[in-house]
Write a structure and sequence with these properties.
This protein is an alpha+beta fold. 34% of the residues lie in helices and 29% in strands. An eight-stranded mixed sheet has the order 1-2-3-4-5-6-8-7, sandwiched between helices. The radius of gyration is 15 Å and the shape is globular.
Length: 174
């Protein structure tokens, strides 16, 4: 079972009842501005996302899970950790619904995911890939103690989307 907890958040595996909230997040143009070429997920892509997360749990014991407020149980975004393409690295990530921007949830979720990689799993480093123009997410990475490493294409990373261009941030275990 994949579960990360912070003071305010729970990051957990997906449940079938989460689909409408997930879809609503991916249909918001502001949220998707730096993701998925700014386009909402199609129903087939939502199906693939949930199937991919189930595979990640089965194969690696981790996923980009549902981020929920502990106090309300409300789904506020998705994030967690997953293998990054064919690099051998584990990446952290966070995507929040528009109404939940500015509450520190991205930093809190990112910190939990990074702690999982570096401390719980004992891996030497954690990485995050960020659209080169996504300044707010770069600030989150910097708050997490991550530093810019280089710009890569998805093809260079062995990512499922070879055409993407991303800035890779990394943090080494202390």
């Amino acid at each position: 079972m994949f579960r990360l907890e912070t003071e305010r958040l729970l990051i957990r595996e997906w449940e079938p009842a989460d689909r409408p909230a997930f879809t609503a997040i991916t249909y918001n143009a502001e949220v998707m501005h730096y993701l998925h070429a700014g386009q909402p997920y199609t129903e087939a892509e939502v199906d693939e996302f949930f199937a991919r997360q189930a595979r990640q749990i089965a194969e690696h014991g981790m996923c980009m899970g549902a981020i929920c407020e502990k106090a309300t149980g409300r789904l506020v975004g998705f994030g967690g950790t997953q293998p990054l393409g064919t690099t051998g690295d584990l990446e952290i990530g966070w995507i929040l619904s528009r109404e939940n921007w500015g509450h520190g949830y991205a930093t809190e979720a990112g910190a939990a995911a990074m702690h999982h990689i570096l401390e719980t799993l004992g891996r030497p480093r954690a990485v995050a890939i960020i659209d080169p123009d996504n300044t707010p997410s770069k600030r989150v990475a910097e708050r997490l103690g991550m530093t810019y490493e280089a710009r890569y294409t998805g093809e260079q990373l062995g990512h499922r989307h070879p055409h993407i261009v991303v800035d890779l941030f990394a943090r080494l275990r202390d």
